[in-house]
Design a protein that fits this description.
Strand content: 25-35%
Family: Belongs to the ABC transporter superfamily.
Shape: elongated
Pfam families: ABC_tran
CATH topology of the largest domain: Rossmann fold
Mean pLDDT: 88
Number of helices: 12
Order of helices and strands: HEEEEHEEHEHHHEHEHEEHEHEEHEH
Strand order of the largest sheet: 7-8-9-4-10-11
Organism: Halopolyspora algeriensis
GO molecular function, one term: ATP hydrolysis activity
CATH architecture of the largest domain: 3-Layer(aba) Sandwich
Keywords: ATP-binding, Nucleotide-binding, Transport
């Protein structure tokens, strides 16, 4: 879908009044639910998107990420529950909220026989805040921002998947936004393109823009986001600051020893749970201190080459949360 163009067109249609938002949340849902016949795609989700945050909605394919985003943007009618965007009820007051929102949802959709620049000019034409000569300037700035200036004259049908993603992102950034919503923004991008997306998100965050992005790539969320929400089978498992979530996973000790079998036996004989991880032993520091682990190994005659304290990664925490819900 041409996410930004569709949103802007809807934004010009609604003139209903709604109170301005002065709260701490850029978006929120309460009891949000979507069913298709007997299938529940989203189950009573209460999602909070703090202003100024970069919130990653994390979950495997089919977890309800895109459906939740579509309901939040007023693109899909919920079965029950409510959604608010920038303080305005959705979809009732979409016209007041959506001009301040840029979105790339379910991949970009543009006219295949037009060039990248021509497609963006059409998107700019329905932006309420762009008029006349300002449109072309905004288009050129957006093309440069996503690295497509050199390909702006090429037909869209000749774009690679990564270039199409870049053009969709450019459409979402035609004007300054209070909130930018990105659904799988690194889909189809090579490593260099992924780094560019990270940089753009970092720039938006530094400027005070709230960013809501969905992804099934744990490493991307951990590298990009300040907050995280985890969805599985349509249910919200957890949400909050990324640092707090990582700290809740506890710390561990990775130990390189002379003999892994002897080291594991020595630790287990002393009631210390351990497992082999690659070439090292890993001990979760929940009921034991790091010096006690080292001392136990030394007393058993196991040589200790290196010991490094680590924090649980998002992958570990995600695996724990989803296993608990299985």
């Amino acid at each position: 879908m041409a996410g930004t163009a569709d949103l802007s067109e809807r934004g010009t249609a609604d003139t209903a009044s709604a109170p301005e938002d002065d709260g701490a949340l850029a978006a929120r849902t309460r009891g949000l639910r979507k069913t298709y016949g007997r299938t529940t795609a989203v189950a009573d989700v209460d999602l909070d998107v703090p202003r100024g945050a970069v919130l990653g909605v994390l979950g495997p394919n089919g977890s309800g990420k895109t459906t939740t985003i579509r309901m939040l943007l007023g693109l899909t009618q919920p079965t029950s529950g409510s959604a608010e965007l920038l303080g305005h009820a959705m979809p009732e007051h979409a016209g007041r909220a959506l001009p301040r929102v840029g979105a790339l949802v379910e991949g970009p959709g543009f006219h295949p026989f037009l060039s990248g620049r021509e497609n963006l000019l059409r998107c700019a034409a329905v932006e309420p805040e762009l008029a006349g000569a300002a449109r072309r300037g905004a288009v050129e700035e957006a093309l440069e921002r996503v690295g497509l200036t050199g390909a702006a004259r090429r037909g869209y049908r000749g774009y690679s998947l990564g270039m199409k993603q870049r053009l969709g992102l450019a459409a979402a950034l035609l004007t300054p936004r209070d909130l930018v919503v990105l659904d799988e923004p690194t889909n189809g991008l090579d490593p260099a393109g992924t780094r560019e997306i990270r940089r753009i998100i970092a720039d938006l965050h530094a400027a005070g823009t709230t960013v809501l992005l969905s992804s099934h790539l744990l490493a991307e969320v951990e590298a990009t986001c300040t907050h995280v929400a985890v969805l599985q089978r349509g249910s919200l498992l957890t949400q909050g600051e990324l640092t707090s979530l990582l700290e809740s996973g506890g710390t561990s000790l990775s130990v390189s020893v002379s003999d892994n079998s002897a080291g594991m036996a020595a630790l287990r004989d002393n009631g210390i749970t351990t497992r082999q991880e690659g070439e090292n032993l890993r001990v979760e520091l929940t009921d034991v201190e790091a010096p006690d682990v080292i001392a136990t190994l030394v007393r058993a005659g196991v040589g200790v080459h290196e010991a490094r304290r680590g924090r649980a990664g998002l992958e570990d925490i995600f695996a724990r949360l989803t296993e608990e819900e299985s």
